[in-house]
Structure formats: structure tokens, C-alpha cells
């Protein structure tokens, strides 16, 4: 199996190296990742300038750093390296739960894989002040991949690992509350500056990704590319048929 590894934190992220090391047990690994951090870029692609890539080595893995977005890296990587089966994106240093998946560059890379007819899995873990300790999550991420890789019908999956996992749960996205908020702060000159930040959401709905990670479980959320509101569509079609 050929596994393309990417992320949105950039080629030098410790999460990227940890993921490549774990993925190497499952197949042939190649890293294609943004040359600088691209967090919260969502599914942006570069259309106004050419993409450039440079070969580098990350802990013995063949790697390429790209002057583009996570989605660019998947498009470029799967075009340059034939026979890619799977794209693993992460390990993102920061959770990607519920509504925040709309902005996530980590998930966008997995979505790009699914758009190209490949399989994509996004992998994230929360961070505090220091970089995460990958040792406690290594075993659970391996178990998660053992669970997901044979399930070829799952083409797009979002995985979040708590810092100290105690099990694995299948989940849905938490949609109770949007956690992005604009806050005002003063810069050293006393001028007002606005930041978009994340306000922690409490009381997640049972069965959701946020609930599972709050409870110490790895959250595996299968996703669809189809954004169609099928309930609304059926209702509208019934109404228009009756007129
Ligand atoms: Mn990130």
C-alpha cells in the first residue's frame, strides 16, 4: 500500500514525523507537506501561481516540501507519485472536532484525497503549551488504522485522539455550538486588535466526537463529501410534485 503523508502544520511538525513512523508499519510512506504552517486554510487550493516543491528528508523518509496548501500537497503528491492508495493527514497539533472541521486544513487534505477517488484519513490531537507526547497515542493510532484500513468503504474519516486514550468510539460530528469567536485585545501600542479564537465548548452531545474525546476515547467519525440536505430536497420535491 502506498501512503501519502501530509498535514497543515507544515513539514517540520513533530506530528507529521510521528504519523509517518506509525504509518510505515502499514505500507510504503512518502511525505508531501506544506513548507510553512497552513492551519485553518480549509480546502483552499493555489490557482494563481505555480506550485514548487523541494526534496528533503525527514527522519529517513523521502519528503517534499511544497509552497502550497494541504489540498495542494495531496493533488501534487498523488500526481507525482503513482499508485497512492491512502492519504493520512496529521497528526495535527490541535483537535479538529465538530464544526471546526469546516476550517480544518488537516481534514481538507483528506477531503482532497476523497475527491481524487483515493481514501483520506485526518488525524488530530489537542495540544497544551508543550508539544504532545506521542507515546500514549501511538498504540491507539495503530489500532485505529488497523480498524480503518481494511474498511475500504470508508473513503473519508476524521480521527481525534485525546492525550491519554482509554478506548476507541465511532462518533458523529458535534454540532451543538460553534466554538469560533472574535475577541478584542490591545497590542503593545494600545491599539485594538481582533483575533478569531476558539472558545471551549462544554456539554457535548453524547455520541459525538467532542463527547468521546472529552471522555478519553479516540473519536472516529466517518464523513461524506455530499453536503446535500436530502431531507429538505425530498420535502421540496414532494411539494413541487403536488403543485
Ligand atoms: Mn494545524
Layout of secondary structure:
Blueprint: E1 2-6, H1 14-23, E2 28-34, E3 53-58, E4 61-66, H2 70-80, E5 86-93, H3 105-115, E6 119-125, H4 135-148, E7 156-160, E8 167-170, E9 180-186, E10 192-198, H5 209-214, E11 217-222, H6 230-241
Parallel strand pairs: 1-2, 1-5, 2-4, 5-6, 6-7, 8-11
Antiparallel strand pairs: 3-4, 7-11, 9-10
Helix pairs in contact: 2-3
Bound molecules: manganese (II) ion.
Manganese (II) ion (MN) binds near residues 8 and 39.
Could you explain how this protein is built, in words?
By secondary structure, the chain is α/β, with parallel strands linked by helices. It has six helices and eleven strands. The chain has helices spanning 14-23, 70-80, 105-115, 135-148, 209-214, 230-241; strands at 2-6, 28-34, 53-58, 61-66, 86-93, 119-125, 156-160, 167-170, 180-186, 192-198, 217-222. The strands form two sheets. Strands 3-4-2-1-5-6-7-11-8 form a nine-stranded mixed β-sheet, sandwiched between helices. The mean pLDDT is 94. The structure holds manganese (II) ion. Manganese (II) ion is lined by residues 8-9, 39, 92, 94, 106.
Amino acid at each position: 500500500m502506498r501512503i501519502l503523508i501530509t498535514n497543515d502544520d507544515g513539514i517540520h511538525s513533530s506530528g507529521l514525523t510521528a504519523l509517518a513512523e506509525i504509518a510505515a508499519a502499514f505500507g510504503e510512506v512518502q511525505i508531501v507537506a506544506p513548507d510553512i504552517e497552513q492551519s485553518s486554510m480549509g480546502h483552499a487550493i493555489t490557482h494563481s501561481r505555480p506550485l514548487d516543491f523541494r526534496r528533503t528528508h525527514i527522519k529517513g523518509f523521502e519528503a517534499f516540501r511544497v509552497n502550497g496548501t494541504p489540498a495542494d500537497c495531496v493533488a501534487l503528491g498523488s500526481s507525482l507519485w503513482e499508485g497512492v492508495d491512502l492519504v493520512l493527514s496529521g497528526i495535527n497539533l490541535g483537535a479538529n472536532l465538530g464544526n471546526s472541521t469546516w476550517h480544518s486544513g488537516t481534514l481538507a487534505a483528506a477531503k482532497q484525497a476523497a475527491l481524487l477517488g483515493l481514501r483520506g484519513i485526518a488525524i488530530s490531537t489537542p495540544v497544551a503549551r508543550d508539544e504532545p507526547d506521542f507515546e500514549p497515542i501511538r498504540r491507539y493510532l495503530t489500532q485505529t488504522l488497523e480498524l480503518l484500513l481494511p474498511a475500504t468503504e470508508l473513503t473519508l474519516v476524521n480521527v481525534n485522539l485525546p492525550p491519554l486514550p482509554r478506548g476507541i468510539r465511532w462518533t458523529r460530528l458535534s454540532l451543538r455550538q460553534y466554538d469560533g469567536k472574535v475577541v478584542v485585545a490591545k497590542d503593545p501600542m494600545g491599539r485594538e486588535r481582533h483575533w478569531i479564537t476558539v472558545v471551549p465548548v462544554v456539554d457535548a452531545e453524547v455520541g459525538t466526537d467532542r463527547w468521546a474525546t472529552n471522555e478519553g476515547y479516540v473519536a472516529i467519525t466517518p464523513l461524506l463529501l455530499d453536503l446535500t440536505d436530502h431531507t429538505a430536497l425530498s420535502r421540496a420535491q414532494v411539494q413541487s410534485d403536488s403543485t
